[in-house]
Amino acid sequence: MMLAWHWPWAALAGVLAALAIIVLIVVFARRNAADDTPVFSMDDDLNTEHASRLFRQWRALGRLAISVLVLALALAIVLVARPSQVDAGDERASSRDIVLCLDVSGSTLPYDREVIDTYLELVKHFEGERIGLSIFNSTSRTVFPLTDDYELVTKQLTSASKALKGVESQDDIDKMSDAEYQDIANWLEGTQNRKDATSLIGDGVVSCAAMLPGFAYGEANHANADRQRAASIVLATDNVVSGKPTYSLTEALDLTQQTKITVDGLYSGPKASESDQTTTDMKSAIESHGGIFLTQSNGASIDELVRDIQSRRDTDVENKAKSSMVDAPSLWTLALAVILIIWIVCAWRLRR
């Protein structure tokens, strides 16, 4: 760290003021010395050895007190100039946009809460990431848009986790109160606006991609794909489609790939279905478009899978050097305090 000064001009002003005071003291002292005031000598009284020793001690203490006072004045001038340090360090800043894209059809709801709870923990360590949440079934609903207001994100994710608490099993659903039914219905409102259709995966992915800058329906191409922030979608679904979607999963991934949006897949379904054709199709589609696809087949929990995806995408984090000037009066203040204590001791001894 390098020493610097916030107000160097204040030190110069302090020095000039001190010099002016000293000059005035000297001038008045000389005027008083020129007076014809009678002077009484104590030489005869100081001829004894004891008196001479006390006088020498008194004179030495007086000189020390003056020296200490001058030093205290110098330190005070230094403090007025605000001694500072240039503090150089690294600032961690992420330039990532993350959209949580959750399938909220009946077969995936029990797993969505685990994804939400994991991100509820991860968001505590976010620094600069923007995160959004979209849920879909036959239609999509934006729970909250891209934001780095982590207080809002935490509040929304906590609310979602509480709403999903009662749907982890059929027994839980059977035990739900009317108020709990209403909470989950309110949270899912807007996701089932098409009849005879559920879990339209491709449409859900496109809706999630539309939350990211640089993506527009029907205009996903390299011309509008330039982005300053890395963009990724975490898609949690079991890929079981019922009904006729506007976009298939592959078509949706083609659009996101053209706009440089990475889609990572998280299988949210029972382990027994991981070998189904729908699951292998999802894995193939995600990985062929540069995404990461993870399941629970290796014994990992949903929490571990989400953290795995997050850690693999942490390469987008940037470390930026920053410098700032901060006040550093500590040593100077300590020195001034010590000097003043010495002066007080000297003054006390002189009065005795």
TrEMBL record:
User: Species lineage, top-down?
Assistant: Bacteria, Bacillati, Actinomycetota, Actinomycetes, Bifidobacteriales
Parts of the chain that traverse the membrane: 6-29, 60-81, 331-350
**Source organism, top-level taxon:** Bacteria
State what protein this is by name.
VWA domain-containing protein
Q: Which residues form the signal peptide?
A: none
- Keywords per UniProt: Membrane, Transmembrane, Transmembrane helix
Does the UniProt entry include the keyword DNA repair?
Answer: no
Is Transmembrane helix one of the keywords? yes
Instruction: Show the Gene3D superfamilies listed in the entry.
Output: von Willebrand factor, type A domain (3.40.50.410)
Q: Which InterPro entries match?
A: vWFA_dom_sf
